[in-house]
Design a protein that fits this description.
The structure is a single chain. This protein is mostly beta strands and 121 residues long. It has one domain: Chorismate lyase (3-Layer(aba) Sandwich), CATH 3.40.1410.10. 6% of the residues lie in helices and 42% in strands. The chain has 1 helix and 5 strands; from the N terminus they run E-E-H-E-E-E. The chain has one helix at 48-54, and strands at 9-18, 21-31, 62-71, 85-94, 100-109. It has a 5-stranded antiparallel beta sheet with strand order 1-2-5-4-3, with no helix packed on it. Strand 4 and strand 5 (100-109) form a beta hairpin. It is globular, with a radius of gyration of 15 Å. The relative contact order is 0.23. The model has no long low-confidence stretch (mean pLDDT 89).
Length: 121
């Protein structure tokens, strides 16, 4: 994220649901310097992108992700089926000027989510 070693960041860990079923686990970091002066973690309920846009006046434009298959017994929490196979999107999110807004590691449970990748040059 090109942050100074002394920079602080907000860490958000969340479960992502579809129709009440966990489909992914996400670990996100947002530089604290980008957040509004009145920021409180209590404000983070729902879409992080909506929060960035509506409360912080930051506008995510694009992301760059590496995609990996991951086997882990340590990623998921609060899922009674205890999945251990994931598709990891290791991703940086940028605004239109190229400023990094957020770093995300999203672990999508295999078989509960489908991706389509469009490549262009």
């Amino acid at each position: 994220m090109d942050l100074a070693p002394s920079a602080e960041a907000v860490e958000v860990r969340r479960s992502i649901l579809a129709d009440g079923v966990i489909v992914a686990y996400s670990y996100d970091l947002i530089p604290l310097a980008l957040m509004p002066d009145d920021f409180s973690t209590d404000q983070l309920d729902g879409s992080l992108f909506a929060y960035l846009r509506d409360r912080a006046h930051l506008f995510p434009h694009h992301g760059v992700a590496e995609i990996h298959a991951v086997h882990s017994e340590h990623v998921g929490w609060d899922d009674p089926e205890h999945p251990d196979l994931y598709v990891l999107l290791d991703q940086l999110h940028y605004d239109a000027d190229g400023t990094v807004l957020m770093y995300s590691r999203s672990y999508f449970i295999e078989g509960r989510y489908a991706f389509t990748v469009v490549r262009s040059s």
